[in-house]
Amino acid sequence: MRSISLLGFFFLLSLASMGQGLIRGKITNPINNQPVPFANVLLLNTELGAITNEEGYYEISNIPAGLYNVRASYVGYKSSTAYEIQVSLAKPVQLDFSLTEDASELSEVVVSSEFTRSEETPLSVRKLNTNEIERYPGGNQRHIPSNSILARRSEHAKFPKRHLDPRRCPQRKPLFCR
Question: How many Å is the Cα radius of gyration of the chain?
Fold first, then answer.
């Protein structure tokens, strides 16, 4: 008894897997009879479809039996629709399409941009007084130890030493004096 029920289960399972139809075919260009690679083939009003391979062949499987409208399309070609295609469980449906070129469907692409230039610069301008200069790092030269690298470099420099302390400038003209 158990073997009969197991046999019946496998029979129903095989019918369920075979209960799906198949549509296959090729999409070509009728002018030069060349295949149209990567074209779309859709069963309208369903979520089923396929894309052709490099040779223009496609295959849509697992289709329930019934009548379907099938559309083939590709960019630069006129779409083609086959109406009321009967899909049965007995044998696969061979459905070939010929797509003719149609460049008139494409329109030109216009790229535009608006550019406004700001008169302000992204740099900040700030005036510093003597006290602020002394507080910033490197602003006070009199506190550099004589054995530091900065002091040794300034001794060997070919230009005269400039002082940042305004009290050392006799005329008190610029901040940097000789």
Answer: 42
Decide: 93 and 86 in contact? Cβ < 8 Å.
yes
Q: How far is CA 114 from CA 111, 119, 121, 122, in A?
A: 11, 16, 20, 20
- Are 94 and 70 in contact by the 8 Å Cβ rule? The answer is no
With residues binned 3-state (H G I as helix, E B as strand, rest as coil), the percentages for the chain, rounded to 5, are: 20, 30, 50
**Model confidence pTM above 0.85:** no
Per-residue pLDDT reduced to its tens digit, 101-132: 887 655 678 888 887 776 666 666 677 777 77
* The token pair that represents 98 in the structure block: 């010929």
Closest to 51 measured CA to CA, from 34, 37, 68: 37
Q: Is the Cβ–Cβ distance between 24 and 60 less than 8 Å?
A: yes
97-98 and 66-73 strand pairing: unpaired
CA distance 76 to 20: 33
